[in-house]
């Protein structure tokens, strides 16, 4: 790890949180977006004109109401690739403890966090800033820590030991989201007309990456972003946010602010579900704005098939009228791609689409 750290520890390495804490009055040049990519921030921008789906997940457990919820999920997946869930079964104490542990981690002295810094996307535990600090053309106003989380017993010893509560609190949340993901992928499979256990074994043996993101207060939020437009490689991403900041792209290519709902979690379809559904569902393109006054935290729990297992369109969703529109890919293929390419220039999923689709 030490040599990896040295590869990114140049004089220019400064985390977004470090910039905020230093009191910079303006965004450094490397964070300034081209005018065409800047967010439109203002009182007229919001989600008041669009009805984003919110689904009561507890109704899935009622045999009489389950078909209605499956239909709501189908509508949300086709319309947005996105929905929020309430009554999801994860206790608020587990959620709040995870947020507390993340807050304590990001509040650690810089030299403590830098022990985990790396620009190697294959590292099982990695602290960093922007997306790839050493290669990004434009930097993003974000600090993060990412680590593998399933099975928990395999990875937890590699997680940060400071703060001392981190492993216990984040571990409970990681396990709870893994259980929740299995319920969600069953419902999504069912909504596609597949057996609800279509990916059950693959998911149980699959990968889970927890990405804790810190978006500090930014002096010029109108010319910077916390994350650029992208879709996730995963089957699903379950997102916890401490305040509003996420935006999704709707079917008309307009940016829509996702409201903050106390106690709700966000479900985003990833590239693996788009491929599995043969394009019936699309992975959602999203980005993150920053705020002049507030620090925002988010927990993205990204769930996927095992690292080297390829996913391809479900056989039942392919026929002569609807041929396979995608090739196959694995989580590892995505990591190799993002290590070598700028995701702001081309989405990974575009590289697996077949030319005749």
UniProtKB/TrEMBL annotation:
It comes from the Eukaryota. Its main location: cytoplasm. The keyword Transit peptide does not apply. Keywords: Cytoplasm, Iron, Metal-binding, Nucleus, Oxidoreductase. GO terms for cellular component: cytoplasm; nucleus. GO terms for molecular function: metal ion binding; oxidoreductase activity. It holds the Pfam family 2OG-FeII_Oxy. Residues 206-305 form the Fe2OG dioxygenase domain. It is found in: Cytoplasm; Nucleus. Involved in the regulation of shoot development and salicylic acid (SA) homeostasis. Belongs to the iron/ascorbate-dependent oxidoreductase family. This is Fe2OG dioxygenase domain-containing protein. It comes from Thlaspi arvense (Field penny-cress). The lineage of its organism: Eukaryota, Viridiplantae, Streptophyta, Embryophyta, Tracheophyta.
